[in-house]
Amino acid sequence: MKELLRAAFTQFEKNKIPLVDAEILLAHLLGVSRKEIHSQGLDIPSEQLQKITDEYNDLINQRLLGRPVQYITGSAPFRYLDLEVGEGVLIPRPETELLVDRAIGFLSSAPDKDLAKSVVDLGAGSGAISIAIASEATLKSLKVSVIAVEKSALAAEWLNKNIAKYDLPIRVVVEDVQTALDGVKADLVVANPPYIPDDEQLPKEVENFEPEVALRGGKVDGMQVPKLFIEAAARLLKPDGILIMEHHENQSELIKQGLKEEFRLPQTHADLTGRDRFTSARRR
């Protein structure tokens, strides 16, 4: 096993791929943890060694071609979750976990927190945000009803798989955010819309493998799609309801401009590296 890893490390180092990916792929193949692959007690029967070597080399080659490690293994960590992912759905990012923190913070600190709250997740993708909010709210004895809106039928397949995996009563609506949930009013809307400007260069593993519809926000400033999400949130929120939205680090002022007609008290929130990546506001 050590020889396999060393060979993978060498190839990944040459191609500027994180070395940890080699460990993740081997652990996935063997059905063990990353820690266990370094264990002296890990014994592979000699008759299986060639098969494992061939399969591991196939995984390594997929990664060298740029396929994201999450798509190869079929799973992506998010907070306390292990979500199923694959081609057609955006891979959840660690930064988005902070949006969930804000959402749970709002639900926990509301003066009427003992009353049930309605939450809508716009552009739900894999269900990372919806499932995290629903499961963590339950742990904190907060009553919530969650609706996940996703227009991509392919992404919605992964969304439904993950909801079923965690056995949560989340309603899925496969529809564009501009028309979804006519007549519904929510206490909280969360959103991670496509916001990357069309001409911004992305790493090849993102550009070539993840769905463009979940990434690109439009020409020049990337605000075309985020503005549609703001309009949808304004339509869906009750008076004084909260919107929490992720965005590009260069869009915070543009987001505030987009909010000024229908929202008040906009606040920009930084991610763990100090970049302005989230904005919250109250519906007028």
Task: Itemize the secondary structure elements and their pairings.
Elements: H1 2-14, H2 20-30, H3 46-64, H4 69-73, E1 75-78, E2 81-84, H5 97-109, E3 117-122, H6 128-139, E4 144-149, H7 153-166, E5 171-173, E6 186-191, E7 196-197, H8 204-207, E8 216-218, H9 224-236, E9 237-246, H10 252-259, E10 263-270, E11 276-283
Parallel strand pairs: 3-4, 3-6, 4-5, 6-9, 7-8
Antiparallel strand pairs: 1-2, 9-11, 10-11
Q: What are its keywords?
A:
HemK-like, 284 residues, EC 2.1.1.297, S-adenosyl-L-methionine, PrmC_N, SAM-dependent_MTases_sf, 7-stranded mixed sheet, Rossmann fold
The rounded distance between the terminal residues' Cα atoms is 60 Å
Strand ordering within the main sheet: 5-4-3-6-9-11-10
The multimeric state of the shown protein is single chain
CATH 4th-level superfamily of the largest domain: Vaccinia Virus protein VP39
CATH hierarchy, class of the largest domain: Alpha Beta
CATH-scheme architecture of the largest domain: 3-Layer(aba) Sandwich
- How are helices and strands ordered from N to C? HHHHEEHEHEHEEEHEHEHEE
Task: Quickly count the helices.
Answer: 10
Count all strands and give the number: 11
Bin the helical content.
25-40%
Give the low-confidence spans.
none
Enzyme class: transferase
Pfam families: MTS (PF05175), PrmC_N (PF17827)
Domain Release factor glutamine methyltransferase N-terminal: 3-74
Protein name: peptide chain release factor N(5)-glutamine methyltransferase
